[in-house]
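Sanity check record (used in CI):
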Amino acid sequence: MAASVFSSELYSRLFPAGEAGKLFTDSAEVRAMLLVEGTLAKVQGEMGLIPAESAAFIHRASLEIPLDPGGLAEATGTNGVTVPGLVAAFRKEMQAPEHAQYVHWGATSQDISETAQMLRLRQFLNILSANLTETAQSLGKLAETHADLPMPGRTYGQHATPISFGATAAHWGAPLLDLLAELPALRDRALLVSLSGAAGTGSAFGPRAAELRAAFAKSLNLKDPQRSWHADRGPILAITGWLSRLATALGKMGEDLILFTQTGISEVTLGASGGSSTMPQKQNPVQPSAMVALSRQVIGLNTILQGAGLHRQDRDGAAWFTEWLTLPQLCLATASALEHGRALAASIAPNPAAMQTALSSTLDLLYAEALSFRLAEHLPRPEAQAAIKTLCKQSLAEDTPLSTLARAAYPDLPLDDIFDPARQTGQAPAEARAFAAATRAL
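Expected output for Adenylosuccinate lyase family protein:
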């Protein structure tokens, strides 16, 4: 098994990360750190903190000079962080020591590393936002088209009361709309620059430290935290918390699809399915299964990250390293789950015949609640409930539909609507259409 399924030649099609995968590579990390170093020098030159000529040279070099990540490995292993080796290699490649001396002026490794990470996380959230919007819109079309299609609702794995497939699609999509709505605030809260110096005091920048940080943030189109957050992992945890909720919503959709495609139910068909190496009849729900597995991974990794949020003192190497081991995998797992969710939302279809069979194969017991409320119009509610419960037991004992027994017991009670699934879905159709309308506004 490969160390990471997302970059594995064997498993990358089962766990596809899409465009997001390009953001979590060594070359992407190095490129982002060079961009940060170049922008820092540019801003410092504009403020007169370093010579303007050197600032311009450094900024231009940061855009033009490539660094091989492999060449930084030994220094990273020694220093525990990539930035010292990157700065040394960058200065050497510049071949202009009079300018190179001003690279990384007053910053600390964490400033560069975390600001570069935020640049990549910004791109990552943009990719997810686009895919999330597409997924929600596909679910909206399902909800609109099948708003009135009745199917059994299930609680505890048992038939409950009728719902509609459109409402089921809306229930999958509603959390996605909430997450999309939260993204602007999340970006404002969490996509921060880091520029605080060695122990978070910014002392090397002098009295203009706050001004420099604000200008640095503006140049990178990130937010100014107006403080040091070296040991405060709140910004990272805010992002991973959002990602965990997204993965959970996608995992729930996957769980439902596994059940809906189960032999004997088959109420939903998938756009694609997998085969068995030995059983020719098998049509396995591969994509939903991958979504569930990925969701579980994200939830577990987020727990690790929450523990890693307990930083000791002003910087904690072990906690920081734990983030490096965990955050990329969490991000890619979420992206992969969304890739599957996006494909499924655009390809799944209901099986109305199977839904009708399920509705008609329960001796009409799905309508027991509605029947009890109809009877409660003429009897006290507890008496009505007790009477219908007795009829349900009789229905099961005699293998006779509840509708037949109810009509015999209460010939004067209007019951046609009670045993019509299309008229017993309550607010489900309206909920489906409301969700569909919301997705059209995206």
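The chain is about 60% helix and 5% strand. If this sentence no longer matches the regenerated tokens, the check is flagged for review.
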